[in-house]
Amino acid sequence: MKSRTTVALIARRDFFERLRSKAFVFSTAFTVVIVLSVVIIPTFFDDGDEPIRIAAEAELVAPLRQALDGLELLIEVEGLEPDSTELLDEGELEAIVPSIRTLSLGDGAGAQLESVLVTALSQLVFAERSAELGIQGDVLAELFADPEIVVEYESSQADEDKDAANRGFAFMGTVLLFISIITYGQWIALGVIEEKTSRVVEVVLGTVPARQLMAGKILGIGALAFAQLLIVGATALIAASVGDTLTIPDAAGTAIVAVVVWFVLGFTFYATAYAATGALVSRQEDAQNAAFPLTMVLVVSYAIATSALAGDNVVARIASFLPPFAPTIMPIRMATGDAALWEIAASVTIMFASVVGMTRLAARIYTGGILGVGQRTRMRDAWRMARSQ
């Protein structure tokens, strides 16, 4: 119980110390601004659905408007002017209808517009012929009444929407994990180096075991990382809801849970490794060089995860079982449906065991390295020094 209280106090100290730092405030504000820019700025350029402009001979304007009324395709019918042909060539108009049996389409007109206009003109021709044959208007209206045909889509469309949502959230989780580990992993390493170079650790280690000091630091800075992600995520969701630019489908729930689980496992795995790396370094200038191998592993992991979005492959399948790569790759494979249930269970089991093993290994290296106050420590020497404690 006492050890848990000690870890909690250390975590609280690191959390609030970093929370008040300019680096955290600036990085959070900068990220929020970027998110708001991505979500809100496009709404200023979204003028809604622009109507498709067509020009028709004066006597056809009203009948065409009636024939086109109620269609999902928004078409604005205006009277034919002397310069309508010129406007058609310039792209201002999509089509002109000089007569009931003549239709001129612009270069930008698609097959859908052509089909709609041909159908509408066919109705007008049919009405004209019906009038010549003496068919009453109410009979003609009955013929043209909405047939109320029900169109059903196969379930594959719903499955595609679900897969797209899952892929999107899984990839988002991969990006967030990558950024968080790179950013806050460095913070953990630098925090360890600061204490080591300032000799504060000599005082602290007199009352707190090195393992608890490492655990508290990882927990505190890790909590800060999650806090920042929550701030950024909540800002994005609120902004998207206000601007009506994002709809989260129900199918994304499973993907979100998977991303959170792998996020926790992946962050813990790498955070402990960064703490051990920081304990081996004596100067802050050497922190990036010492952490370079971890950064390269993360970059490779991110590249493999990106390739898995395009389809399952042997490299992604094998890497999804390897602890350094699994947190970024397995969520993608789960989202694409390429990972079998036994593969997911095996990968989670291996990852959990690896987190426990990495924590013990990093704690031992941290214990030995942090004792080498003011000097760079080799991993082998740190291992030996920890054994003697």
In short:
With 389 residues, the chain is mainly α. 71% of the residues lie in helices and 5% in strands.
How would you portray this structure in words?
With 389 residues, this protein is mainly α. It folds into two domains: 2-43 and 155-387, no CATH class; 52-143, Periplasmic binding protein-like II (D-Maltodextrin-Binding Protein, domain 2), CATH 3.40.190. Helices cover 71% and strands 5% of the residues. It has 15 helices and four strands. The chain has a four-stranded mixed sheet, sandwiched between helices. α1 (2-19) packs across α9, α7 (155-197) runs parallel beside α10 (252-279) and α14 packs across α15 (379-387). The radius of gyration is 32 Å and the shape is elongated.
Weakly predicted, low-confidence segments: 153-157
How many domains make up the coordinates? 2
What do the pLDDT scores average to?
Answer: 76
Radius of gyration: 32 Å
Give the CA-based shape.
elongated
Q: Give the number of helices.
A: 15
Any chance you could write out the topology, listing elements then pairs?
Elements: H1 2-19, H2 22-44, E1 52-56, H3 58-68, E2 75-79, H4 84-90, E3 95-99, E4 102-105, H5 111-132, H6 137-143, H7 155-197, H8 200-204, H9 210-243, H10 252-279, H11 287-309, H12 314-319, H13 326-336, H14 341-370, H15 379-387
Question: Which features does this protein show?
Answer:
about 400 residues, mainly alpha, D-Maltodextrin-Binding Protein, domain 2, 4-stranded mixed β-sheet
